[in-house]
Amino acid sequence: MKQFLKINPADNVVVAIQPLTKGTVIDVDGEQITLVSNIPAGHKCALKDFAEGENIIKYGFPIGHARHAIQKGSYLDHEDIKTNLAGTLDYSNIHIKGLKKYEPSGEQLTFQGYVRPDGQVGIRNEVWVIPTVGCVNGIIKQIVEKTRAAFGGDKIEGIDGIFNFPHNFGCSQLSEDHENTKKILRDMVHHPNAGAILVVGLGCENNQPRIFEEFCGDYNKDRVKFMICQEVQGDEVPYGVGLLTELVKKAQQDKRETVPASKLRIGLKCGGSDGFSGITANPLLGAFSDFLCEKQGGTTILTEVPEMFGAETILMERCGSDELLGETISLINNFKNYFLSHGEPCGENPSPGNKAGGISTLEEKALGCTQKSGSSVVCGVMEYGERLRNNGLNLLSAPGNDLVAATALAAAGCQLVLFTTGRGTPFGTFVPTMKVSTNSGLYQRKPNWIDFNAGVLVEDKSMDEVVKDFTDKILRVANGEYTHNEVAGIHEISIFKNGVTL
Q1: 343 and 476 assigned to the same domain
Q2: What pLDDT digit, counting tens, does each position of 272-328 carry?
Q3: Residues 246 and 352 grouped into a single domain
Q4: Closest among 319, 328, 313 to 363, alpha carbons compared
Q5: Beta strands in 96-160 (DSSP E)
Q6: Helix (H/G/I), strand (E/B), else coil: 70
Q7: Is the residue at 417 inside a domain?
Q8: Cβ neighbours of residue 141 under 8 Å, at least 6 residues apart?
Q9: Which partner for 302 in 110, 145, 373, 380 could form a disulfide, CB atoms 3.0-4.6 Å apart?
Q10: Residue 23 is part of a domain; what is its CATH number?
Q11: Is residue 250 exposed (0-12), middle (13-18) or buried (19+ Cβ within 10 Å)?
Q12: 165 and 312 fall within a common domain
């Protein structure tokens, strides 16, 4: 295994692949550099003497500037580097590269999925109970528990489980927040991973069940039922169990069938990132995204808009049209204005875990984060709560928060979320959430969380080999193999909130 990595020829730092001790001499492009500090794995080492204010280059781009004079061979972290980011920018000098949207070519892969009447394909056949308002969270929990018991437990023949998705919203919300709640819940009603759905309302909430039913548009009335608790005579739980039992029996009739990989819609997400994220796991997702979009005609979605700040121009230049470029510019600046409207800076994103893992500034985080999108043309730009319209690589408006962003990806229509992490996390949204470790240490330490180890990419395994193994794993999950969050029974949602609570 290499001691260090210089990612781009233009870089003036290297990343330690393994811990390096003070006094070690490293050879970088024929120059002998003696380390004047210990360098932890995943962290940066200076290749030159920096004057205060001079830019630090990594991934071939500035990731900030030196806060003070820095000696060659020194350890660099967040106390040494300050972001260059400020407010909104004028992107009038950005021009698209004119990349072509690729047509599927080569071997066309398939998986066994559930073809729904509207043409969507699910990779799970689950039965969901969705509340219109947080007031009924306790009721839907009882309905699900009693229905499971009636079928003999958690493992029910023909379906992948019955799940309820509590949330705290649906009432006491105004304008955009109220619409966001309705959109995410509507998107869940139309999601192909559910074979049947029971929507449970209270009756007096802002998110009125009958109005929400109209908001859902054309839905499968045979597989989606609505229940208003205040209109049920007596105990609403047995009534709900009766409705849910009928829906389970209908979902049990569904069978998997062979479908092309072009039907896959995959969300791209990272969290608990470290210094290896932009070297291993995120480039792996990028290579897979390119393969799925360009060779198979499938779809991926990149989100976490605040974690694009500092690398957004790379995405802008890859837009498929000037119209998409304009939408991407709005995507970025609207989120920056959201930060500024709350009196928050745009560039203070890295978390304590990010910093401990070797990420010093938002630009550094963003340049690693956006690698999940590969190099394909951007084919669509989506607002929060919007459902997919275009195949290929899409950008989605959502924050960086893990569960909020993953929920938004699933709501957009993704059957699976790929989640890269250097620190580890057990969470999962309402679709399978497949964890990809950036380093082998995490994979070995938390085998109950991590589904795939990208750390082998710095252990002399080629990207081509790992992409093949990764694709095989994703197809197994699409065919029904459970991710670790599913095995642990972790299925959650979180909805973006911005405004006043009444």
Answers
A1: yes
A2: 999 999 999 999 999 999 999 999 999 999 999 999 999 999 999 999 999 999 999
A3: no
A4: 313
A5: 110-115, 121-122, 126-131
A6: strand
A7: yes
A8: 164, 166
A9: 373
A10: 2.30.130.110
A11: middle
A12: no
CA–CA separation, 188 and 453 (whole Å): 30
**CA nearest 267: which of 285, 279, 242?**
285
- Residue at which a domain ends, from 193, 226, 255: 255
CB 358 within 8 A of CB 374: no
Domain count, the chain: 3
Q: What is the DSSP letter of 103?
A: P
Could you give the 3-state DSSP secondary structure of residue 135? helix
Domain final position from 24, 58, 82: 82
112 inside domain: no
Distance CA 316, CA 330 (A): 11
498 lies in some domain = no
Q: How far apart are the first and last CA of the chain?
A: 57
What's residue 501's pLDDT?
A: 87
Backbone dihedral angles phi then psi of residue 491, each to the nearest 5 degrees: -135, 115
Give me the pLDDT at residue 147, please.
98
Using the structure block, give the residue that is written with the tokens 């837009």: 319
> Is 367 within a domain?
yes
> What phi, psi does 200 have (nearest 5°)?
-115, 125
Q: Give the pLDDT of residue 344.
A: 85
Domain containing residue 338: 259-487
Q: Are both 357 and 482 inside the same structural domain?
A: yes
What stretch of H or E contains 312? Answer: helix 312-316
Q: Which amino acid is present at 285? A: L
Measured CA to CA, the distance from residue 418 to residue 434 in angstroms comes to 5
Backbone angles phi, psi at 490, to 5 degrees: -100, 110
CATH of the domain at 132: 3.40.50
What pLDDT, in 10s, does the model give residues 179-203?
999 999 999 999 999 999 999 999 9
Q: Which of 462, 441, 356, 463 is nearest to 18 (CA)?
A: 441
Does this model's pTM top 0.85? My answer is yes
Flag residues of the chain having pLDDT under 50: none
Residues 220 and 267 in one domain: no
pLDDT at 86: 81
Question: In this structure, what is the dihedral angle of CA atoms 33, 35, 41, 46, given to the nearest 10 degrees?
Answer: -60
